[in-house]
Amino acid sequence: MKEVNIAANKAVQAATSAVAIESVSWGRAGKAKWQHNAVALLVLFAPFGMYMNWLALEHHDGSLWEAGRAFASQGPVQTVMQYFPKPSVAGFAGYAGWMILQTTLSFFLPGKQAFGQRTPGGHLLEYNANGLLAWAATHALYLAAAVVGVLDPAIIANNWQGLFVAANIFGFVAAVLAQIKGYFWPSYSSDVKMSGSWIFDFWAGVELNPRFGNWDIKLFFNGRPGIVAWTLIDISWAAYQQQHLGHITYSMLIVLLLHAIYVVDFFINEDWYTRTIDITHDHFGFMLAWGDTTFLPAFYTLQAQYLARYPVYLNTWQSALVLATGLTGYAIFRFANHEKDYVRSQDGDVVLWGRQATYIRCSYPTNDGKVHSSILLTSGWWAVSRHSNYLGDLVLSFAMCAACEFRNALPWSYFFYMAVLLAHRTIRNEARCRQKYGQKWEEYCREVPWRIVPGVW
Ligand code: NDP
Q1: Could you tell me if 224 and 138 are in contact, meaning their C-beta atoms sit under 8 angstroms apart?
Q2: 122: closest CA among 200, 19, 34?
Q3: Could you tell me how far CA 228 lies from the centroid of its own chain?
Q4: Worst-scoring range by mean pLDDT, 29-43, 277-291, 293-307, 406-420?
Q5: What residue owns the CA closest to ligand 1's atom 45?
Q6: DSSP sequence for 40-108
Q7: Among the listed ranges 154-158, 167-171, 385-389, 405-409, which one has the minimum average pLDDT value?
Q8: Which end of the chain is least crowded, N or C, by CB within 10 Å?
Q9: In angstroms, what is the span from residue 44 Cα to ligand 1's centroid?
Q10: Spatial separation of the C-alpha atoms in residues 39 and 17, rounded to whole Å
């Protein structure tokens, strides 16, 4: 893979020519409009949403509806005074230990050399993709400590409130520090974007790729505090179920398995991830700093948290159906993502679904005055729709939620969130690609007319 990446890098370099260009328009929009400010209000609403989930799970039988009713009738002050996740020394100490461990592993473990996508400023960054080793080491340590009896495997579940508070505080502090660094000490000033709106800049970030030396802060935050924690938190809630119920349900096992496949896939393909939107286009602000440290661990584990407290019993057929749906979604997700990355790494010369791949050759400028060549794939999964990878992700998300049955909306909020997130991504990403590739993007849309679900949208 290292050779493939280096070859791809060389191919991109070779396909670059210098022309006079003053600035490019395909990066993040320059000035914030009212819609951007409205979205940035999620700085307040997203933590509130996480609080409501916690309230529902902890005090209202997992019912968001009941939690909302109680909140409305008691009023916010009374509710918060009566029910608030309790900060604890164990929570702060545990969270600090967690961050120190993940930072250390990220710094010192060896990993694959990966190259991102060229930034609007013209930078092609190198990454040390050692996430798989960090994930394996963390889980091995946790399970070994549980087996020899020095750690209760349900420790995360039992200290959830304290950890939740600590993660929130850390996420807010990290977002503020990211903002200060972006203003005063950016790693790549040609990739800094100021929108003229402090709330939007705080939400979306100003730096594209903040780094300390070669250590990439965004890759670390996206992968480690959030995604490594995802499966660890699941395991802890499964242990909690075992301790309270005396057994682990099929539904819990299915959720654990589907989450684990998604997480391990992410780390096996971490170098691919450096060429996806989170890394190549999203700046580092509250959305990613708080999102990765608090939202992801609290929200993406909702099904496990729910099932641990309110078990669901699926029969063998139901279990098989949910699992098969999840695995089908995963297969679409993985093949689609692989095809797109593979075709670019081989400069188009690949066979997909038994035929020579077809693609549209396009070009785009960067701020350093150069023009680069690229490829828009139009065969394999990328002939089915323009975001077939999102389609696979949605099917997989549906299965993760279906394991919790249909009696409660809360565990389903993950599927609705993914549907909104991926639809919104599609819209904003396509607007960016239209600016980046111009007529070639229009040509691509004519050739592959559906966005996500063929025949629907
Ligand atoms: P993609 O990996 O699909 O990246 C989109 C980019 O790919 C475009 O901006 C364009 O970038 C390039 N591109 C678009 N069409 C083509 C084509 N036909 N051929 C070649 N390149 C093309 O999107 P994401 O980064 O959003 O998602 C990656 C994966 O992560 C998806 O499977 C998604 O479902 C998943 N995901 C999961 C999330 C979660 O929270 N669980 C959140 C977000 C995503 P360029 O500028 O390089 O041309």
Answers
A1: no
A2: 19
A3: 12
A4: 29-43
A5: 433
A6: HTHHHHHHHHHHHHHHHHHHSTT-HHHHHHHHHHH-HHHHHHHS-PPP-HHHHHHHHHHHHHHHHHHHH
A7: 405-409
A8: C
A9: 27
A10: 38
Average pLDDT over residues 219-242: 95
What residues does ligand 1 touch, defined as CB less than 6 Å away?
117, 276-277, 333, 337, 340, 374-377, 382, 389-390, 393, 425, 429, 433, 436
**CB 19, CB 372: distance < 8 Å:** no
CA of 318 to the centre of ligand 1 (A): 32
Is the model's pLDDT at 22 over the cut of 50?
no
The domain segmentation of the chain, as residue ranges, is: 1-30+314-457, 43-312
pTM of the full structure? 0.88
Atom of ligand 1 nearest to the CA of 393: 34
Question: What type of residue sits at position 340?
Answer: K
Q: What are phi and psi of 453, to 5 degrees?
A: -105, 115
Q: From the CA of 248, how far away is ligand 1's center (Å)?
A: 36
The protein residue with its alpha carbon nearest to ligand 1, atom 32, reads 389
Atom 46 (ligand 1) nearest CA: 433
Helix (H, G, I), strand (E, B) or coil at 130: coil
Mean pLDDT computed over 415-424 = 95
Distance from C-alpha of 293 to C-alpha of 295, rounded to nearest angstrom: 6
